[in-house]
Design a protein that fits this description.
Blueprint lengths: L8 H10 L4 E2 H7 L11 H13 L3 E7 L5 E7 L1 H8 L8 H4 L7 H20 L3 E6 L6 E3 L2 E3 L3 E7 L2 E9 L14 H21 L10 E6 L2 H14 L8 E5 H6 L9 E2 L5 E2 L61
Parallel strand pairs: 8-9, 9-10
Antiparallel strand pairs: 1-3, 2-3, 4-7, 5-6, 7-8, 11-12
């Protein structure tokens, strides 16, 4: 039987994050620095609050084994918690979103959760606005008979400029060169075709709206995998000067103090880039990397200072919604 609980702004912030991704206690503790009314003093206080929300039927916990031994809990928002956070009129995610994470998806799910939490923290610390967040499996880019679904999507705003980021959490499982539908080759070719479609529509309409730009952000387990993906992106892109795909190791992203603004990413030309670059004509002074297969050079984590047609956003129900790249559309957290 559910018990009553008085929700604080910090509770609502936590429910909002859990409506984006499941999270462990350490991840929620790290994210709490961004919560309204401030972070939790320690994990014990956090666990006490999670227990209260669980007793009220808004959060559910599961236990999982840790790599070093023992158990740890991870948490998901319940349908009731989702409704409290977003209102009863908001479309709920599918039932699987509220269910226990299957063993086969566990590593991917929590690497994605880690990336989401660090992105939220980075936005908070640098006063970057999250205009839009779209969960895994709820966004599809489609061009012709090709379709790809990023692991999550952020639309960020800084200094009145928008940055559209489609994240791909790479577990080194899909082949890069294979022709299978889930291969990196197919993903890259679909993203490239989609970008070409967006630009052609934008030009045909006389550039009447914001130039449709987005980045595909690969976070990999290894340097070699990142280089392999970027090398293939360079070989297959129809426009060598267009920087569509960035890649970095996940470790470099989640351990950097400023992961959105630090040039820890490489593009397909081997040049260092940041996800939020307010001065793109100024080149970073880090030496470019020659992308070849195989490679030996590591991704360096230390940076140096630097001298209307509607493209498709399709919901999981298959409906065509508004253009996510249009500045005229107001965005709310989903």
């Amino acid at each position: 039987m559910s018990s009553r609980v008085s929700l604080s702004p910090r509770d609502l912030s936590m429910l909002r994050l859990l409506s984006w991704t499941p999270a462990t206690t350490p991840l929620l503790q790290r994210a709490s620095v961004t919560f309204d009314e401030g972070e939790f003093a320690n994990e014990r206080r956090l666990r006490e609050r999670l227990q209260a929300l669980s007793s009220a039927g808004m959060v559910r916990a599961w236990s999982t084994a840790q790599a070093g031994g023992g158990l740890q809990n991870y948490y998901k928002v319940t349908p009731l918690g989702f409704d409290v956070c977003h209102g009863t009129d908001a479309e709920r995610p599918p039932r699987a979103f509220f269910a226990e994470v299957s063993a086969s998806l566990f590593a991917h799910t929590f690497r994605l959760a880690e990336a989401i939490v660090e992105t939220v923290r980075a936005c908070h610390s640098r006063r970057v606005t999250i205009d839009r967040f779209i969960r895994e499996n709820e966004l599809a880019f489609k061009a012709g008979d090709r379709q790809v679904q990023p692991d999550c999507f952020f639309r960020l705003t800084s200094a009145e400029r928008s940055f559209n980021l489609a994240f791909e959490i790479d577990n080194s499982m899909p082949s890069v060169d294979a022709h299978a539908t889930n291969s990196i080759r197919q993903k890259l070719m679909t993203y490239q075709a989609y970008q070409e479609m967006l630009l052609s529509q934008w030009l045909a309409a006389g550039k009447k709206w914001e130039r449709p730009r987005f980045r595909v952000v690969f976070l990999t387990r290894s340097v070699e995998r990142a280089y392999h993906i970027l090398t293939f992106a360079a070989e297959t892109t129809p426009n060598k000067s267009r920087r569509l795909v960035y890649a970095a190791t996940q470790e470099s992203y989640v351990t950097d103090d400023r992961p959105l603004h630090t040039p820890i990413f490489l593009d397909h030309l081997g040049n260092w880039q940041s996800l939020i670059d307010l001065h793109p004509t100024a080149v970073y002074t880090k030496a470019p990397v020659r992308l070849t297969r195989p490679v030996d050079s590591p991704l360096v984590l230390v940076c140096q200072p630097r001298s209307k047609i509607e493209p498709l956003w399709r919901s999981r129900t298959g409906h065509h919604l508004h253009n996510i790249f249009s500045p005229q559309i107001p965005f709310t957290c989903s």
